[in-house]
Amino acid sequence: MVNPSTILVAMASSGDQKQAGPTELESCVLAIIERRGACTAYAVRRYLAASLSSYWSGSAGAIYPLLRKLVRAGWADFEETPFGTRKRRVYRVTSKGNGALGHWLSAPIPDGVAAYTHDPLRARVFFLDLVPPRERRAFLDDAIAQTKSLLALHQEEREELASELDDWDLHGREGAIRELSARLDWLRGVRRALPK
Amino acid sequence: MVNPSTILVAMASSGDQKQAGPTELESCVLAIIERRGACTAYAVRRYLAASLSSYWSGSAGAIYPLLRKLVRAGWADFEETPFGTRKRRVYRVTSKGNGALGHWLSAPIPDGVAAYTHDPLRARVFFLDLVPPRERRAFLDDAIAQTKSLLALHQEEREELASELDDWDLHGREGAIRELSARLDWLRGVRRALPK
DNA sequence: CCGCTCATGTAACTGGTTACATGATTTA
DNA sequence: TAAATCATGTAACCAGTTACATGAGCGG
Description:
Radius of gyration of chain A: 22 Å
Oligomer: homodimer
């Protein structure tokens, strides 16, 4: 383990001057609406829930306030139609929203976006010497098994849906599969390196 | 783009019954203290800041309250020594904390830990058809360039520190490098698939 | 004695989470 | 007609962030 000699002052110095663009999830939601055409908050939630990433839960408590914020910021608007005793809001991306979206999908890619990669499994491996060898083996075996089945799941789904998916959806899924394969290889390597 | 037919009810049904173990960052901090031996909050922050992952900033506003919580939960304690007019707290992992740590590093690995993988770059690629081809190319070129230099950075640092790093640190770093390599391959593939 | 590093902390905020609550529509 | 699905939302909470504020020790 290396002794980290970095000084803390350097931590604070990422000079970005509050541009207040949409956050990651907000951009994602804008993109979803733009692609599906006008749709309700519920449709967005359903999309998020169906996506394999599970990074965002698509919970109501996140989406409804977020859509209000998109409207407030001028990135989206909605048409309200009566729906029983209630109302129903169909959201659309405004031209300003489309601009923000274009910015989200443009070079130069801001700091952190290309760097950001967090794997809680890897975080654990860094500290695996804190448990006895027996536990290490059990941990790695389980990690390998879980990664393997997750990879299989992704591959099956891709084959299943191959015909109905567009190119960019396929590219995205390919990226996830490549990452999982790499992780599996890596875990197997670590496992093999263990002393008998 | 597939029409996600998953029902939302399924979203809420991840049956975990509030075990209230340490969170990811809390476990990580426990592991850091355990490995370095007794240390101050500042040392933990410095470690986090030096780690290449950048997932956690190691900000004071996170670490100091977190350490209080660790103490409250019985996972850590501290020795307070006078330090000028102030005091200085040296934290240690308690045996209960060590138990929690052992659990963190044990099979079975809970749901989500092995699945969780979020790449904001990949999220963008899913929606890259929303911008004109010219922008797509620029985006991918930048993504490739940034990933390449990040990979180089990691590899250099590994070589530089190879002698002072222990096995598990090396394994962890290898994992990050593998992931970045896979991402780079993938991005290049996507780039090549673009029509002239 | 100035500036850097070591060190400790608080305050206000944010971007989510889970859990709750309601009601309309469709389908078996 | 009961159950599932579609749909909209709120309330309480939580883990982190940035920004601020303070002070000790040390080297030039």
